[in-house]
Amino acid sequence: MKKTEKHANPAPSNRKQLSNGEQTSAHTAVPPTAQVILLLHGGQLCAWQATPGLLPKALLIKGETQLTVRDAPSLGSAWEDVATRLRDDGISIGHTLWVADAPGRQWCAEQKLAEWQLPWEWLAQRFGLGDVALWDALEDAWQAQILPWLITTDDAAQHQQLQRTRESEHASETERLAAERAVLALDNERLRAQNAALQQVDAERLASFLPALYPRVFTAIGPADLALLCGRTEPLALPNPYPEPVEETLRTLQKRFRALPQPLQKQIIRFMADLPHSQKLQLRPEMRELVDALQDN
Questions:
Q1: What's the pTM?
Q2: Residue 16: predicted pLDDT
Q3: To which H or E segment does residue 44 belong?
Q4: HEC secondary structure over 55-100
């Protein structure tokens, strides 16, 4: 992840002073509430602000989008910077979620930071990432899949359910599997809401790969409808009529689709399978075997 140039926080005395009227309004207005999600792995820290109804927003930490932290005190200082910036912007922190590796969890404990915490290892196993390095997976798996899932899993009941699931790792195998089934049942109940959040993040990726799967796909589902189904109000910038890709481009798109992590492949297939428009479409023959396998898993 690229780092931005460092900028010191402006001193309180240099910040814009509110007029008397603005001060009165500020006292009476209810500040917006946001969830803060922090990712700590390998001594690297990133943070996102999740506000209901909006896409997650990456937060600067001491002027950087990815900050190196070397110990518990530097982690505490980094969190204070995040919290101060949000307070200065008039945003109330509803609760925080830390996703951390083992050393990071220890630092959180020393600083008494983790209001709610999930191990990165647990999430990696849950989303089928295997041994993929976190920062290698950040753009695809984290941004497109894990982060939206964490945002939609933000109420107290679900937090307690996930906490019980983690604690069950130290119980018997039978108890652990029972807890995992309970989490899966909870996932099924929230599947449509989670898909909506995932697709909202992935509209451009969806549009780029659909032609690899279906010929003349945008004659069956137009850019405006596709945007609405992905949770966007603005239509996707697609030409009308949309030209069929030439053979070389088609094969390249199909190769890239096959190289996607399987959860992202399933996301696209599941999205299309749930649409009535899919009855008007036929899979490209060369992709049918892969799509059938994804649907069966």
A1: 0.45
A2: 46
A3: strand 44-50
A4: CCEEECECCECCEECCCHHHHHHHHHHHHHHHHHCCCEEEEEEEEE
